[in-house]
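A reminder from the course coordinator: this example appears on the midterm review sheet, so study it carefully.

Given structure:
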């Protein structure tokens, strides 16, 4: 949210809460076609309110147990919900994988870059990892370009299982030092939670 005096955009990242379900439903509904292209979880949509609440409860439980850290990304201090960003331990010891998405109506404003840079900082400083990785589907040029713009280097191709069991060709990017991070200017990002 633009503040007149400082001209700085503000993002608030905080762990997902069950009460975020209506805002998440709205963001998913707005963005479902594009989310289904790149995000495996989007193939569970549209889901019932109960299923969405259960998913958010699971996110909160994972966060509290230190299994993975999923954040709601809010534009400004009072919303709207801009998207989500997460840190996952699926890349092996000493590393975390970063993922991010932004709702359709708020894309191309620098939100993904600012949220991703904040979580990279958080991964190195609070989680004490030695590397952060980003894996994007082949063809997801916007996410690949974002990783490169933040200082991630291309590490190679890999295959993961797609939501329907098919092979999913992906591109892997890696950042080995917080000093290599190129964070976008013009944003203040507040990250809540361990």
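Designed residues:
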């Amino acid at each position: 949210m633009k503040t007149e005096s400082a001209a700085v955009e503000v993002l608030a990242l905080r762990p997902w809460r069950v009460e975020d379900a209506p805002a998440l439903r709205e963001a998913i509904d707005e963005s479902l076609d594009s989310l289904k292209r790149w995000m495996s979880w989007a193939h569970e949509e549209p889901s019932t309110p109960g299923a969405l609440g259960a998913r958010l409860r699971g996110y909160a439980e994972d966060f509290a147990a230190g299994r993975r850290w999923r954040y709601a990304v809010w534009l400004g201090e009072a919303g709207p919900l801009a998207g989500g960003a997460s840190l996952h331990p699926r890349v092996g010891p000493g590393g975390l994988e970063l993922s991010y998405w932004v709702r359709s109506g708020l894309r191309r404003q620098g939100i993904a870059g600012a949220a991703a840079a904040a979580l990279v900082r958080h991964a190195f400083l609070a989680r004490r990892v030695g590397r952060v990785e980003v894996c994007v589907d082949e063809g997801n040029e916007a996410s690949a370009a974002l990783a490169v713009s933040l200082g991630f280097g291309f590490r190679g191709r890999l295959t993961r299982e797609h939501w329907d069991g098919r092979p999913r060709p992906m591109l892997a990017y890696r950042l080995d030092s917080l000093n290599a991070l190129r964070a976008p200017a013009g944003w203040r990002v507040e990250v809540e939670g361990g």
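Helices lie at 21-38, 49-65, 111-125, 141-149. The chain is about 30% helix and 30% strand.
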